[in-house]
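Why should sequence recovery work at all? Because a backbone constrains its sequence more than one might expect. Tight turns favour small or flexible residues, buried strands favour hydrophobic ones, and helices have their own preferences. The token representation captures these environments compactly. In the example below, the structure is given first.
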């Protein structure tokens, strides 16, 4: 009789720590007597049958690597019912009993529909640098991304200080301000612009004028890409028009998505994925796994997708107080 199988895929934007997640899925599944099917290029690969059995050795020497050995994609075809039906057929032909999806919000939506429409057992593992998934304190990749961003801002600080310049530094996060907020706190920025706050740039300009009077010689401003005032370049233009300061910009961009995962991301990925496999084996489906106050929690995918996760007000306030 064919061996029972668990499948794993990574989907959406890659995140450092995804490899540690894949490794944990493979090793845990094998321990419990399952064979593992690795699906390449996310849902697109699933639809096209781009799959391979992964053995223990296939995931050796990957825990420290950024990116994802399974590759990833944002699939248009999977957004259609036909696409999902094709994907489900591949899983059924391959004798797969359950699927672990490592990804963000869009990937969870796909997983939920696959479960509901096609009767496939699915568990979601939060893998995104944005940290915007409800049902977990942190997502895989966030810690690495903020460490990369803080390191970059530290370097910009040196040159900003030497030239007495004002820098607008744009970080990722899509509609979420987590990366910007934690980068701002970690790098001691003057100001953080978040999508969660409707901060008016005019108030900041007034502050700059006042800070100029106090001889504050350089300023680091962290701009979340989703904030309401536009990107770093746009904000710099507005400031240059009215404040006599030497203004520059930097966009950290995809640097934040690459690099070796931090120890914290490797641990989180291992713990979440190990428990995701155990949840599937225990018969759970349609849930996202998360770590809340150090405890493993299972959140229905519909809740993980629809409930908004935002930085705590207290942390935002703290960032403001510490930058005064
Ligand atoms: O979701 C992760 C993320 O890096 C966001 O922060 C960013 O907005 C987006 O993906 C960029 O996507 P892409 O790499 O497809 O341009």
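From this structural description, the recovered sequence reads:
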């Amino acid at each position: 009789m064919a061996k029972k199988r668990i499948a794993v895929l990574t989907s959406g934007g890659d995140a450092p720590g995804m490899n540690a997640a894949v490794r944990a899925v493979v090793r845990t599944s094998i321990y419990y007597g399952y064979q593992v099917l690795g699906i390449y290029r996310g849902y697109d690969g699933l639809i096209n049958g781009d799959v391979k059995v992964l053995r223990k050795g296939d995931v050796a020497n990957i825990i420290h690597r950024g990116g994802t050995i399974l590759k990833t994609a944002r699939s248009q075809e999977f957004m259609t019912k036909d696409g999902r039906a094709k994907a489900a057929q591949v899983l059924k032909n391959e004798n797969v009993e359950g699927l672990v999806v490592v990804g963000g919000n869009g990937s969870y939506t796909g997983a939920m529909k696959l479960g509901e429409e096609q009767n496939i057992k699915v568990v979601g593992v939060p893998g995104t640098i944005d940290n915007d998934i409800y049902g977990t304190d942190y997502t895989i990749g966030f810690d690495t991304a903020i460490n990369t961003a803080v390191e970059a801002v530290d370097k910009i600080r040196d040159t900003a200080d030497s030239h007495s310049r004002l820098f607008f530094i744009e970080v990722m996060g899509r509609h979420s301000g987590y990366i910007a907020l934690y980068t701002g706190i970690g790098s001691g920025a003057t100001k953080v612009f978040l999508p969660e706050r409707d901060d008016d740039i005019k108030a900041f300009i007034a502050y700059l004028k006042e800070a100029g009077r106090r001889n504050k010689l350089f300023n680091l401003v962290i701009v979340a890409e989703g904030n309401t005032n536009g990107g770093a370049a746009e904000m710099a233009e507005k400031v240059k028009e009215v404040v006599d300061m030497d203004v520059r910009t930097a966009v950290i961009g995809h640097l934040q998505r690459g690099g070796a995962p931090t120890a914290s991301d490797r641990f989180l990925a291992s713990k979440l994925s190990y428990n995701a496999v155990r949840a599937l084996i225990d018969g759970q489906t349609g849930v996202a796994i998360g770590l809340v106050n150090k405890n493993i929690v299972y959140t229905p995918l519909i809740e993980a997708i629809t409930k908004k996760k935002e930085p705590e007000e207290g942390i935002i306030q703290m960032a403001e107080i510490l930058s005064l």
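A few observations help interpret the result. The CA atoms of residues 88 and 118 lie 6 Å apart.
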